């Protein structure tokens, strides 16, 4: 850490006073609010700020559009899955019905075979 170079208190006060005076001079040398350079810098900052806000708004709009698109795709997929489930249920129902019809036909054939065997047995006894 550097050491102070001031020898005594009066020199220290003089250094502080000159530093304050230099700061005051820099403050007074600052351009006024209506100075063209200041107005131009403010306009440039305002333009940058507005461009940033426009980019942010565009990103938000893109995000909202993407979210809506994904929601629409999800809805279409869900509807398609629901339609496929209904079709699958219909196919299974038709298969069960056909299976039931085959089972009824098989039972009818078995009954007819039993009846014919029974009739043959009865005919042999007579």
Report what the structure shows.
The chain has one domain. The protein is mostly helical. It contains 2 helices and no strands.
Structural class: mainly alpha
Oligomer: single chain
H/E series, N to C? HH
Secondary structure: number of strands: 0
Domains counted in the coordinates: how many? Answer: 1
The total count of helices amounts to 2
Shape: rod-shaped
Topology record:
Blueprint: H1 9-29, H2 36-125
Explain briefly what this protein structure is:
The chain is mainly α and 126 residues long.
Characteristic terms for this protein:
single chain; 126 residues; mainly alpha; 88% helix
